[in-house]
Amino acid sequence: MDKLLELLRSFHTDSIYLFGESVIDIRKLGAIVNYKIATKFDIKSIFSEISQKFDMEYYNIKDNYIYIVINDRMVIEIFGLTEDLSFEEFLMSRELNIERIGMDLDMNILYDFAENGINSKIIEVVRNCCVENPLRTLFNIVRMMSKYSFKISNNTVLYLSNEKFDNTVDSYETRNLLFTVLSNKNSYLFFKYLDNFNVIDKIFPEVYEMKEVGECKYHVVDTWTHSLYTLEVLEEIIYSNGYFEDHVKKSYENHTSREYENGIIHIEMLKLAAFFHDVGKPSAMWIDNTGRVRFKGHEITGEEIVGDIGERVRLTDNQIGYLKRMVREHMRPLVLYKSNNLSKNSLNELFSLFKEEVHDILLIGLADIIATRRLLDPSEEMGIYKIYIEYMMNNYLVRYKPLYEIRNMNKLKQMKSDFPDDYERLLDTLVSEIYLGNVKQTEEGITAFIENI
């Protein structure tokens, strides 16, 4: 924040202002996440300076408006004020009540026509205001509802309910909405909210077909409803105190708090993977000769579909690869449960395939199972599935993961020097062999392994 403010202050600060979301960010979050700038200064000159000081991921330039993405957590919008339009008049033209507040670059409030809305935490479209793009307006409302825990006025709900939302929005606006929502502890509610306005399939066209299929022997609802419920269960587990043992909960918190280079937090990717775990069901549906609906192979078709979704919302290759792995493999915990197979070989296969991502696949599997079984038999004890998943997680944390500490042994440091290109693969193989009991975790045992390479 300081870096951008410093840059803006290098211009004529008496003609550059912050408004709306930027002001609320400071009040509610303590830092600006979304920069909204209004100025009479030449906006292309400001853009030129920003492009030299920041690594821009994306930008879109129009006549009097520039949209810049630095990363998913920092969006800059610059609005050019014409000579005959004052900053006060500009604020009064904003379509959302809480956007009608502005300050200078020294954080002094200049105009506040949004006080009632901000204090009451109610967002509404200002009466008689012309809404040029209802879809963008809805996106902004839902994003800020999630971001600030605000509500929407009944009049605005009624107003938007009469809109057809035929407009489009930039893919980066979609991503900004998506990950702001996913950062919320109840993100499933906001997806449900968007669905109530019949726009969820404008964000994800795949949802339309998910609503048409899914009911079968194991599911009493369609795939969309099940996916939404899986996300709800996932969030219920993640944010519960005492659901998992403390050391398991702490391990999950450490794992999911990692931040990607584009500002996305791993917990948001985990939620997105859970949300789309069954996205391949519509394309995989078939009916056998008994008339039973089946979805065999939906994890394979889903992998391709979720990859397309990831590209559409501008995720990195690394993030897309993660989504594809989670969707492709989400059935593994259920298969192990059904086969009652928690042998060393089965667990070793699971752990060696996923490593740290075993956190993700087990949690998605647990949420999927509970979301299915609760609706099939509400009286069924769900704790049995939790115990089963927690056993595997404990086995990974206590028995498997600590084996990687052997990398600190001199013999392993020498192996890294001797086989730099194959070191990680050899280390993984060695860990698996120790876990299975085929190699002793001693200097002699590891020496014998290396000598047989």
Structural class determined from secondary elements: alpha+beta
- The biggest beta sheet, please? 7 strands, mixed
Amount of helix: 40-55%
Q: What's the arrangement of strands in the largest beta sheet?
A: 3-4-5-2-1-6-7
Our count of domains comes out at: 4
Give start-end ranges of low-pLDDT stretches: none
What is the strand tally? 11
Gap from first CA to last CA: 53 Å
Radius of gyration: 26 Å
* Number of DSSP helical runs: 24
Q: What's the shape?
A: globular
Mean pLDDT over the residues = 91
Strand content: 5-15%
Description of the structure:
This protein has 453 residues and is an alpha+beta fold. The chain folds into four domains: 2-120, Beta Polymerase, domain 2; 127-196; 204-399, no CATH class; 409-451, no CATH class. Helices cover 55% and strands 10% of the residues. The chain has helices spanning 2-9, 21-29, 43-53, 87-92, 115-120, 134-148, 154-161, 171-182, 187-196, 200-203, 206-210, 223-238, 246-256, 266-275, 281-284, 298-312, 317-329, 332-338, 344-354, 358-376, 383-400, 410-418, 423-435, 443-451; strands at residues 16-19, 34-39, 58-62, 65-71, 74-80, 101-103, 109-112, 122-123, 151-152, 286-287, 293-294. The strands form three sheets. The chain has a seven-stranded mixed beta sheet with strand order 3-4-5-2-1-6-7. Helix 9 (187-196) runs antiparallel to helix 12 (223-238) and helix 12 packs antiparallel against helix 14 (266-275). The mean pLDDT is 91.
